[in-house]
Amino acid sequence: NDKEKKCVVEGTFNVSVFLVNHRAPGRDEAPDEEFVFQAQLVLSSKIPLVPRPNLYALDQDDWDLKVADLQYRDAFEYAVGHNVATKATLHDGHCYRVETDFLPTAEVERVAPTPMPNVVLSMRTLSTLPDGATACQSLLPIVIAYREWIQQQRTKIDGLPSHRRDTAEILLNQADVAADRIQAGIDCLNQPLVLEAFKTANRAMAAAARRRLNIDDPQWRPFQLAFVLMNLRSIAEPEHADRETVDLLFFPTGGGKTEAYLLLAAFTLLYRRLRNPGIASAGLSVLMRYTLRLLTLDQLGRAAALICALELEREQDVAKYGEWPFEIGLWVGQAATPNVMGHKGDNNQNSARAKTIAYKNDDRKPSPIPLEECPW
After folding, report:
1. Which of 79, 62, 54 is nearest to 160 (CA)?
2. Sign of the C-alpha dihedral, residues 173, 175, 181, 183?
3. How does pLDDT run across 272-312, given as a tens digit for each residue?
4. pTM of this prediction?
5. Cα dihedral angle (284, 287, 292, 294), rounded to 10 degrees?
């Protein structure tokens, strides 16, 4: 078909190599005696092998495939295995050997933040900003550096094929929108209530980080602040158009995603109370949903630590943050947490009271509390 024709580079040909076991089947009681284990196929050449054309480029209707084609345009494929992986050996950028590999490995490069010496990243310092002008001076370099990076990327797209250049233009235009949203978030800090909620959220996050990591002055990564600033305006202005935008924070494990959205959650909780004093600010403010049970418990513990820090802030200024305590809950089945408190004589073995007594009498019983240790 047309797609297969496009996969062939003129002047080259494809080679398919198969290993076939022609042995007769073994005895019924020992059929594996005639199997072939740990076999490996190796193909080497004195002239460089030609990488396969990027199949992503052939599908012009799928946006994700277009982005992958652009971003991985320098990642080449020299061999494809059937029911097995392959490995290519490169020398001076050329491939002379490919082989099957039942346990392929690849080095994943560490993601490290770019140093931004002019940006205030200290949670402690951000929690003491005196006014919006100081906040702008402390955070605006993030936008400046981001816009400079976008401009640098624009200088690199002229030599791309037309379909990749079009994709790059769209991505860079979206980056411009993101920069504008970060700028708008910084501008929002000129509003007294927004600034107060932002400062207190940083103070609470710093307290939680000191508890969890034993760090004297926790620091933000630039992308974490950028993510929060992008969303400040749409939280402060419920009718803003950005409310219709879903932001995907995509980062490797351990990169700091949780702290970024917890800061945003803390800001939301605090700003709601500052803007709506009294009972009007009570009720559910933030929903967090997880699909993996172990991840749920880990995130619950970290979120609970933040709630503890927020509650300490509230207790120090009840007039400002209200009499209703900051709280957190877990909505799961009764096999994980009891659904009722219970009382003496109710004969309900699934109540919190009954499960707590059973656990105290025999710690081999499941704990009625999902948190194994106090978050604070």
Report:
1. 54
2. negative
3. 999 999 888 989 999 998 887 778 888 999 999 999 999 99
4. 0.85
5. -50
